[in-house]
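Hi U.,

Before I forget, here's the chain from the pilot set. I'm dumping it here mostly so it's searchable later in email.
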Amino acid sequence: MTERMTRNERLLDQLHAYTTDHEVEAQHRRAMIALLEAGDEAFSRDHFAPGHFTASCYVIDAEGRLLLHHHRRLNRWLQMGGHVEAHESPDAAALREGREESGLSDLADVIGGIFDLDIHPIPAAKGEPDHAHFDIRYLARTHSPDAVTLDRAESNELAWVTLDLAAELMPGPESARVLRKIERVRRERSVL
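Structure:
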């Protein structure tokens, strides 16, 4: 292996090392590996069949609350996230998106790697067809939860919520899986 790995090679190594006991997430992992192995366009915003990689960030505070934003275009409560820029790794993109969408400058990765994997549909808009986001998800924390700042271009609202309320606001099975993981990390790591 060369000293300088490409972004695709690094992510491929991370995906091969990532383990999950959830069958749907394991299917997502296999599809992500296939997308990376299919060529260099996996991160291109113009790659629509089947889709492209994105990165997102679940932000928690010391009280165990989760920060959600009400996404302007999708009209849903979600974690922070978005597209990976040409020069970025997915983990750097997730933290950048988290900072941009929340105003929190002190975000830090909690577990030091991939937290969850999800592939979800994105409806057509702005000249783009329906496609899928192959989302690499990370868990971050902040020590300054009161520093949140709403970016009206991205969000209708920001809210710190309990995990129980998050389950109501994001009722899908992919969210339930992530919320269980967050609760497990909170129990195992008292430093959050």
